[in-house]
Design a protein that fits this description.
This protein has 626 residues and is α+β, with helices and mostly antiparallel strands. Helix content is 28%, strand content 27%. The N terminus is likely disordered.
Length: 626
């Protein structure tokens, strides 16, 4: 079971909550009735051993992987506490809305808690039952269906869970089963840490693939739950690539910090997101996302990214994120390591495993550069602040993202760590690379799923042990500087630069198809969703100078009803004319017409070699011997 080496300072919030009657050491009995999860309703019954006196129970607030206070407490309904054969009154804390206060009467040793978890489609809540439940499948994250004693370390709370599924459904999880009767599966007792770290996928269509490399003693399984059987039917060659991913992770890190690993994948709708766990991951892909060649690069990267998190984020974790329980606030100042380095190695391991081609690897880096090229907010907001303010930016609107910046430590972090990789190679004459840092920082010896916190100085010392130099200054310069120009240093050091052409790369086409957007930020300066609504407008672009702003809906192009094809045809025709582009929008029930002076056609980023420089991307992408 995972063990967290907790921080020394207690949470001020929890220190202020009076907890006079902690629960005893007996496991919490947690019965989850998910038989109606397809209707977005989950019923919960908990039984806790208690002592008479004041008692405070809390609902998980700060959720690992979300890096913020995202626990959906407002989705709890019908909450009732009973003990000694009667209903006990309770009161929500006046400051901490996640805390429930009650008084346990004399003679009562067993407390029963019952509530219903409601679900509804909610933007940004990609792992809530409202967004993951369909008539044929669902995803259950246990942090959403449990209360536990306040001011208690999650490692110290034991839970014996059971889950009732819809009839004829199967399931996949990293939890160890204790038995099954009909639609109900029981699990062995685990710590609350392990339970929350172990999501459960279930559905009518589930396929399991063994992706354990030959000679690897730990079991690795790819579990796909789909809306249809077609969405779970992987070709043998694709299964072999995921097996290679496991092998390449071993070659990179040289150690594993789990007893087994389950790649949990739910294929439904237009989903595209992942959440990391120590012995599994929780990946949401489109309905045919695991089988559609057009999504192959994205699904390969997604699974590789979340897999890398087992080492970077779960085993080694920034001290500010290694909290003792789910009520202590998290500090995300090192997310440029946690997520940035994971984003880099997600790309690298995906290409080494054959999940993406070397050309796709380069095209995806070009797209990342182009995204940062759009970020006018880099002139006022340093990369470090995007990590520090992560809990705000995760829930911020996509509107004005170029001005505001987003969680850029993911994408700019890839380019930062590419530059670190290139710098290590340059400082050591090519004898060492970032792979040596990864093995030293995340590698041997093998362990179970434990947590080893770290700070900025630990990263600096580990880099200096691989390649001597002032890494603190190197990193702080890039993290704290205001940069009006995009971060080209890493690509240039690797021997490549970005150029723009009229032809989109396969990665650009896949990105638009995945996100259901039309991305013309490199030409007109617009990003549109599938309805034609402007998601982002670059202020200094032709569209921005003409007066268009985010949230407007494009309804007509050159007096014709808007469609993506119509707009693309207009862009192509405008190359040969001097007349401005005529666009009409609808915003707040007002129609407006705009003349946009642009004649450059479509533009998309690509990488090209810098003559006379060494090519580092090719050796970085090459598969490693185990």
């Amino acid at each position: 079971m995972p063990s967290i080496r907790t921080l020394a300072a207690p949470s001020l919030l929890l220190a202020a909550i009076a907890v006079g009657a902690p629960c005893r050491a007996e496991p919490i009995e947690l019965a989850v009735d998910a038989s109606r999860i397809a209707q977005r309703l989950v019923s919960v019954r908990e039984q806790l051993t208690v002592q008479p006196g004041p008692l405070t129970l809390v609902y998980p607030k700060w959720i690992p992987g979300n890096h913020g206070p995202t626990g959906p407490v407002t989705d709890l309904s019908g909450t009732v506490f009973t003990g000694g054969g009667r209903t006990l009154p309770w009161q929500r804390d006046g400051v901490d809305m996640y805390a429930y206060h009650l008084n346990v009467p004399e003679g009562v040793t067993q407390l029963t808690v019952e509530f219903t978890k409601l679900g509804e489609p909610t933007p940004g809540d990609d792992f809530g039952i409202g967004n993951t439940s369909t008539p044929t499948q669902a995803d259950l994250n246990f942090d959403q269906v449990v209360l536990y004693p306040a001011a208690t370390a999650a490692d110290a709370v034991q839970v014996r869970a059971s889950v009732r599924m819809p009839p004829a459904w199967d399931y996949a999880t990293a939890l160890a089963p204790a038995g099954r009767g009909g639609a109900t599966v029981r699990f062995e007792p685990v710590s609350l840490t392990t339970l929350v770290d172990s999501p459960m996928m279930m559905g009518a269509h589930l396929r399991r693939y063994d992706v354990t490399p030959a000679g690897e003693p730990r079991r690795h399984t790819l579990d796909i739950v789909g809306e249809t059987e077609a969405g779970t039917d992987l070709p043998a060659a694709r299964v072999a690539q995921f097996t290679s991913l496991v092998a390449q992770s071993g070659a990179l890190f040289g150690a594993r910090h789990y007893a087994h690993f389950d790649f949990l994948v739910e294929a439904h709708g237009d989903a595209d997101n992942g959440l990391e766990h120590h012995e599994s991951n929780d990946d949401q892909v489109p309905r045919l996302g695991m089988t559609d060649p057009d999504f192959a690069a994205e699904s390969g990267y997604l699974l590789a990214h979340e897999f890398v998190h087992s080492w970077n984020g779960k085993y080694r974790r920034p001290a500010g994120l290694a909290t003792a329980n789910y009520q202590e606030p998290m500090i995300g100042d090192l997310l440029w390591v946690y997520e940035g380095l994971t984003s880099y190695y997600g790309e690298v391991l995906a290409v080494r495993a054959g999940l993406v081609t070397p050309e796709q690897f380069r095209d995806r880096l070009a797209l990342v550069y182009a995204q940062m090229d759009h970020r006018s907010g880099r002139a006022w907001r340093p990369l470090q602040d995007t990590a520090t303010a992560a809990q705000l930016l995760y829930t911020a609107s996509d509107r004005w993202v170029s001005e505001r910046r987003a969680t850029d430590y993911y994408d700019e972090g890839r380019l930062l760590w590419l530059e670190v990789d290139a710098a290590i190679r340059a400082r050591t004459g090519g004898r060492r690379s970032l792979d040596d840092f990864a093995r030293a920082f995340y590698g041997p010896p093998d362990t179970g799923p434990i947590v080893r916190p770290y700070g900025f100085d630990d990263v600096v010392r580990a880099l200096a042990a691989v390649a001597p130099g002032d890494w603190a200054a190197f990193l702080r310069t890039r993290l704290d500087a205001l940069r009006p120009t995009p971060p080209a240093q890493g690509l240039q050091a690797a021997g490549w630069r970005v150029v723009y052409t009229a032809e989109p790369s396969s990665a650009a086409r896949a990105a638009e198809a995945t996100a259901h957007t039309l991305d013309l930020r490199d030409s007109l300066g617009l990003l549109l969703d599938k309805s034609g609504t402007l998601v982002d407008v670059l202020p200094d672009s032709p569209a921005g100078k003409a007066g268009l702003v985010p949230s407007m809906k494009l309804v007509a192009v050159d007096r014709r009803v808007y469609s993506a094809d119509e707009l693309r045809e207009l862009l192509a025709a405008a190359v040969h004319t001097t007349a401005p582009l005529s666009l009409m929008t609808l915003d707040n029930e007002v129609y407006q017409s705009f003349d946009v002076d642009y004649h450059g056609g479509e533009r998309y980023p690509h990488l090209e070699r810098i003559a006379g420089t060494p090519d580092l991307l090719t050796p970085i992408a090459a598969a490693r011997a185990r």
